[in-house]
Amino acid sequence: MADMKYTQLGRTGLKVSRLVLGTMNFGPQTDEATSHAIMDAAQASGINYFDTANVYGWGENKGRTEEIIGTWFAQGGGRRDKTVLATKVFGNMAGDGGPVWPNHDHLSAVNIRRAVDASLKRLQTDYIDIYQFHHIDRRTPFEEIWQAIDVLIQQGKILYAGSSNFPGYKIAQANELAARHGRMGLVSEQCLYNLAERRAEMEVIPAAQDYGLGVIPWSPLHGGLLGGVLKKESEGGRRSQGRSASSLANTKVREQVQAYEDLLDKHGIEPGEAALAWLLTRPGVTGPIVGPRTQEQLDSALRAVELELSEEVLSGLDEIFPGPGPSPEAFAW
């Protein structure tokens, strides 16, 4: 096993790896056999925290990602026992553009009960370690949500609840209500957070820290923007796509990314590894979600856990990608 580092998930006693294996590509981009090989390699390297969602697989294949994880668990060998499994609920499971039946999405007690049973079946397990709300539900009160979660915990179907894409005030609302009723409340928050997108520092991360939630950044390379995209382009590699391509169309962003790559080249550091290592220095961060498609990408992510960024590098990164500053100073004056 590699020298993986571990930490507690927020205020819980649950020990998790400082890298989280993201599975969103399993099915749409990565076939089942390759997905199984990646999970085996991740677990062999010491990664014990796996993240997924009921809608992953997308389009007409929603749920496919959970099914792939389920067939991997079914191989035995302690795979399930060694895994801290997190999945999510909120989105509807109808095919894209298809009709959505009432109560088959969002966070009503009815949908939570239905969704968790469907996820358990696909995952071929009898419990989920961290059941996460994939988005805020503006029409369902937290009283109802927590009542549904209480039932699932009492039934042994889930152990903890977490959030994803929540604003700071919703984290506060959820956990204040939970505390009044003697509940644990949210224990983790997944948010978009990386060097190029630091707005979570204004309210989301402070709220998570104050309420004892572990922060799990998603898109740590900002869609590839922080993974050495300009160098790859200049060397004839794959051109940027998606969020990375749209960002690079902005001249200021392109200049920032060039300065970023130049700084890291000067210090002999791979950009993708630096982006992950930077997140691991940030207050409140448990570990970023990484979605390797190859063993080489997994190895690169693992090197980031051991990478110690110097004060010179950290200062340079802050100069290139300055944070917004704390709230309310960031916007009030």
Q: How many distinct beta strands?
A: 10
Secondary-structure-based class equals: alpha/beta
Q: End-to-end distance, in Å?
A: 50 Å
Rg estimate, integer Å: 20 Å
Residue ranges: pLDDT <50 for 5 or more in a row? none
**Average predicted confidence as pLDDT:** 96
Please give a structural write-up.
With 333 residues, the protein is α/β, with parallel strands linked by helices. Helices cover 41% and strands 14% of the residues. It has 13 helices and ten strands. α1 packs across α2. The radius of gyration is 20 Å and the shape is globular.
Write the layout of secondary structure elements.
Elements: E1 6-8, E2 15-17, E3 20-22, H1 32-44, E4 49-51, H2 64-73, E5 84-89, H3 109-123, E6 128-133, H4 142-154, E7 158-164, H5 168-180, E8 186-192, H6 204-210, E9 214-218, H7 229-234, H8 242-248, H9 251-266, H10 271-280, E10 289-290, H11 295-306, H12 311-320, H13 329-332
Parallel strand pairs: 3-4, 3-10, 4-5, 5-6, 6-7, 7-8, 8-9
Antiparallel strand pairs: 1-2
Features:
single chain, alpha/beta, 8-stranded parallel β-sheet, 41% helix, two-stranded antiparallel ribbon, 333 residues, 13 helices, globular
What's this entry about, in short?
This protein is of the alpha/beta class. The protein contains 13 helices and 10 strands. The chain has an 8-stranded parallel beta sheet, covered by helices on one side.
